[in-house]
Amino acid sequence: MEKMAVGVVGGALLLILVVGSVLLADGFGTRDSFGTSDESRTFQGPETQSSEQTSYFIHEQGLELILLGLFSVLATVIIVLQKYRLRRWLLLASVIILGFVMGGFLCPTAAVQNIFLKANTGYLFLFLVPVVLALIMGRLFCGYICPFGAAQELLHVRKWAWRIPSKWMSILAKLKYVLLIYLVVRVLVTGSVVLQNYSPLKPLFSWGGTPMTIGATVFFALLSVFFYRPFCRTLCPFGAFLWLLSRFSLFRIRANTSCVSCNLCTRECPSGAMEGGTVAASECLLCGKCTRVCPAQCLCVKGVRPATQSQGGRE
User: Fold this and answer.
1) Among the four 71, 123, 125, 282, which has the fewest Cβ within 10 Å?
2) Is the pLDDT higher at 191 or at 164?
3) Residue 287: how many CA atoms within 13 Å on its side-chain side?
4) Which domains does the chain have, with CATH numbers?
5) Is 0.85 surpassed by the pTM of this model?
6) Average pLDDT over residues 77-104
């Protein structure tokens, strides 16, 4: 079974590289140049078709949708087969392919704004993929696919990790919801996108930027060495949106009646989602670290059961 899982993941990664190479070689779309301002955009509803738009899939949206689908399948295979040690390879592939090759699409700060401006293009499907994944598997996109989150995690050095007291972390975590509300209200009022170039690692993925955006990238890159996914956990507006949806996910990591409340999972969880065998589905990134340290092997991904039958689990 393990060899089969490795073969599936390896074959799918090879397919991603082949498809990406062919489409890029054929000149599939034109990438937006980094650093260009979106201030000239005007708000358009999904039913409005721009006179300049000649195709439903503009820029590289078609290719991005294919890659997003392939990465989603790979992530699901890893979770279903519980081959979590392969996850790090998928994160690395995300940084290389979705980050450096594709320029880091579904930018965390721009995604929740662009959906209002590009809903009449293939961007609608790009946006819906993480949404559907969140409703089915929780924050699978955040934990396995997003190149911005993947880069932060790969930079993190566990033995150098600093833990922020839970009281302070709960306060800092609320900042992403404030930013989400601000960005949505602003784009609805002004019809323009803001802060899209300030997502950490965006300048690195796009090989450019201003002193301010590069400074933000360097700051969060250094912070990532000591803190687990600092931007994801405190400021990511797209992550905040998926957090809200993942509270209703159909599948999540749960403990069965064999749980001995040893709290090893609580200490091992890097995102602070575990507490004595119960999991906050909205915070869980499905990394599988808790399942590997569980002495009773009672943690696995399960469907949500009626509250009267479940073993608990905070939201």
Assistant:
1) 125
2) 191
3) 24
4) 160-243 (no CATH), 251-303 (3.30.70.20)
5) no
6) 94
